[in-house]
Design brief:
With 321 residues, the protein is an alpha/beta fold. The protein has a single domain, classed as TIM Barrel, CATH 3.20.20.30. It is built from 12 helices and 12 strands. It comes from Amycolatopsis pithecellobii.
C-alpha cells in the first residue's frame, strides 16, 4: 500500500519544496482544487519529481470542458513520463452552479459521461479514431491536426473518481480505474457499502476487482502538530463534514446519525463556533489516524488500511521544513 502527500491549498511557489517532502518519505503527491489550479501546481512539481506518482485529488470536472481536462492531463502524463493520475470529482451543487456558473445536474450520469468523453479525446490524440463523441451532455467532433498533441509513449493516465455514495462508487468502477474516498468513511462503510457498489460497477464493465484501485483520504491527528493536524483542528474539520447531509449514511451505519442532525441544526442557527464541541473523542478516533509524529502516522496508516486500500493520503500535510 502506498502513502501519498496531499496538499489541500497548493501554491505554485511551494511545489518544489513539496516535491522534496515527497521524495523524503511519501510515494506520491496529490493536490486538491481549492484556491488554485491543480494542474499548474503539478506541472511545477513534475519538474522536481522523477519517480513518484502525481495526481489531482480532485480536479473539478463540470466547470471544464472534457477537452480542456483531456489536454491538461495529457500534458502532465507526458511531462511525468507516465506517472500522472487524473482524479475527477463533481463537487457540490452550490459550488458548481454559483461559484463556477456551470451545469451540475444530474451529477452521477454527467460525471460518468464526462469520463467517457475524456477517454474518447485521448483516443483521438493517440490516433485510435477521429474525434466524434456525441453524448447526452457533451459533444466533441472537431479536432484539426494542428491542434492534436499526438500520441504518448507511456499511454493515457488512469482516471479515479471521487466517491462517497453507492451510485458514485458504482460509476467509478464501471468507467474509471479507481475511486478517491472521502475522509468521512470507516472500514465498515468501505466493506459493506463501497465494495458492494464497486462489484456492481465492475460487473457492468466485465472487469476484475484487481483492475480497480481505492485511494483513501484519511483525517490524521498528529500530537506534535499544532496546525491543521492538531486534535482540535481535526475535530472542527470533522464537525463541518458531518453536518452535511450527504455524509449522513456513514454516520447512520454506526448509529451516529443523531450527531449529524445536531451538527446540522448548529449550521442552520449559525452556531458554527460551537459545532466541534459536539464531537466526542470516541467518534473522532474511529475516523482518524492518530499518532505522535508524522513518520509514525505514515506507519499507522499503512497498518490501518492494509488489505483495504491501495493508496492512502492525509487530509492535512506536514509543514514544510
Amino acid at each position: 500500500m502506498k502513502v501519498d502527500l496531499y496538499v489541500y491549498r497548493p501554491r505554485l511557489e511551494e511545489m518544489a519544496a513539496r516535491a522534496r517532502q515527497v521524495e523524503a518519505g511519501f510515494d506520491g503527491l496529490f493536490v486538491a482544487e481549492s484556491t488554485g489550479d491543480p494542474f499548474q501546481a503539478l506541472a511545477v512539481a513534475s519538474q522536481h519529481l522523477r519517480d513518484r506518482v502525481l495526481g489531482t485529488s480532485i480536479a473539478l470536472a463540470f466547470p471544464r470542458s472534457p477537452m480542456v481536462t483531456a489536454v491538461s492531463a495529457w500534458d502532465l502524463q507526458r511531462a511525468s513520463g507516465g506517472r500522472f493520475v487524473l482524479g475527477l470529482g463533481s463537487q457540490v451543487r452550490k459550488h458548481i452552479e454559483r461559484r463556477f456558473s456551470s451545469a451540475f445536474t444530474p451529477p452521477m450520469p454527467r460525471l460518468r459521461e464526462y469520463v467517457l468523453a475524456v477517454r474518447h479525446v485521448w483516443g483521438a490524440f493517440a490516433g485510435a479514431h477521429p474525434l466524434d463523441f456525441r453524448g447526452e451532455y457533451y459533444t466533441l467532433d472537431y479536432l484539426p491536426p494542428a491542434m492534436n498533441p499526438g500520441p504518448l509513449d507511456c499511454g493515457a493516465p488512469p482516471v479515479y473518481l471521487a466517491a462517497l455514495g453507492p451510485a458514485m462508487f458504482e460509476a467509478a468502477a464501471e468507467v474509471g480505474d479507481g475511486a478517491l474516498v472521502h475522509p468521512i468513511h470507516t472500514h465498515a462503510y468501505l466493506r459493506e457499502v463501497a465494495e458492494a457498489a464497486i462489484a456492481r460497477g465492475l460487473s457492468k464493465a466485465d472487469r476484475r476487482r484487481d483492475e480497480f484501485a481505492l485511494s483513501v483520504t484519511a483525517l490524521c491527528i498528529v500530537d506534535e502538530d499544532t496546525g491543521d493536524a492538531s486534535r482540535e483542528a481535526v475535530r472542527r474539520q470533522f464537525a463541518f463534514y458531518a453536518s452535511t447531509p450527504a455524509y449522513r449514511p456513514v454516520l447512520d451505519l454506526h448509529g451516529w446519525g443523531e450527531l449529524g442532525e445536531r451538527l446540522r441544526q448548529k449550521v442552520r442557527h449559525g452556531e458554527h463556533d460551537s459545532m466541534a464541541e459536539l464531537v466526542p473523542d470516541e467518534i473522532l478516533d474511529a475516523f482518524c489516524v492518530v499518532a505522535p509524529t508524522w513518520p509514525q502516522a505514515i506507519a499507522a496508516a499503512r497498518e490501518k488500511y492494509a488489505g483495504v486500500a491501495d493508496r492512502v493520503m492525509f487530509q492535512s500535510a506536514p509543514a514544510i521544513a
